[in-house]
Amino acid sequence: MPQKLGGSKQYKLTFAPNEPLTRAMTVTILARRAGVDTGGEPWYEAGRQWAMETGVSDGTNMAGDITREQLATMLYRAAGSPAVSGSLSG
């Protein structure tokens, strides 16, 4: 039986590639990658604070599943919003 980590969803505390990724999980991963100590209560709060301070996320809907678009945006912002080049036209 999965253990409850936060929000209304339950997740296993092991590698689970078929489980949804939440916004809370995402900001925690990115904050840890940036060297932030992510301990505390609730478990994602330090990552949430880091994400809001750095402009990666507005810190809302932490229990919600992250969409591809939201993930791409957070990764782009976490990378410092680098200049883009190229074209999308054929």
Please tell me about this protein's structure.
The protein has 90 residues and is mainly alpha-helical. 36% of the residues lie in helices and 8% in strands. It has helices spanning 23-33, 45-54, 68-78; strands at 3-6, 9-11. It has a two-stranded antiparallel sheet with strand order 1-2. Helix 1 crosses helix 2. The longest helix has 11 residues, at 23-33. The N and C termini lie far apart (50 Å). The model is unreliable at 1-8 (pLDDT under 50).
How would you briefly describe this protein structure?
With 90 residues, this protein is mostly helical. It has helices spanning 23-33, 45-54, 68-78, and strands at 3-6, 9-11.
Spell out the helices and strands N to C. Answer: EEHHH
Name the shape in a single word: globular
Please state how the strands of the largest beta sheet are arranged side by side: 1-2
Number of strands: 2
Return the structural class. Answer: mainly alpha
**Helix-residue proportion:** 25-40%
Q: Name the average pLDDT.
A: 87
Largest sheet: 2 strands, antiparallel
